[in-house]
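Residues determine shape. We examine one folded chain.
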Amino acid sequence: MTPQSMTITRDVQLDLDERQVAIREVGISDVKYPLTVSGIELDDTAAQTVNATLSLAVSLKKELKGIHMSRLVEDLLDTEAKIDFQSLVKLLGRLREHQEAETAALTMTFDYYLDRQAPVSGKIAKQAYRCRFEGRLAGDRLHFIQCVTVPVTTLCPCSKEISAYGAHNQRGYVEVTLEHDFDDQNASEVKICLEEVIEQVEACASAPLYPILKRVDERFVTMQAYDEPRFVEDMVRSVAVKMREDSRMDRWTVKVTNHESIHQHNAYAVVRGGE
């Protein structure tokens, strides 16, 4: 079929709406797009291309019928090659300006891969960490969230205490959420990289997880976990102490979920802190 030219005499999205209902967020979600992300690793020059899932949205005034959805995609396509804090701030500004909206919001989730070395054999492989960025620009205020989920091993102190030999352990997931508030005219860069948070969390566990382990590594990790038992309460408190001692974020949340190995249910604990 040959495309035909046409003249649009009326843009329905520009019609007025008489219901007097303002919309907080309207946009697109579950957008899959490859992006090169920087600012995650302790090496601030490091970057990695990830398969990101995004949502992009703006507010809509009560008298307007709709937004231009395609413009949200256009703004994403205009994003700089490397995504970092500053480029996300610029994207929020473009979203808001392009739609003549009062606020703009975005969410971006992706897996970021870091090298992890087995403790004895020294074997190195990539391990995935689930990351999330959220941003909301409203007026002259910018609210920004960093989030990472870190898989760990925890061993039950109670099981160790009451058993003649052995103790049950489980895989745990520690989700750390960091919140930052800025003036959009004077937004300094976020000073925390998620690899730093990952290392702090892994240091609080009975043992870290590894993408590859040989027999000598399995022995080491098993005994390490046995020597460092942790309740879910222990994990969340230990990570919370590290967050509490860090003044580089306005608020933070730590959630630990243990996938119990001898129970059908999971165990979880949450601590929040900051302003």
About this structure: Helices lie at 69-77, 85-99, 157-162, 194-204, 215-227, 232-244.
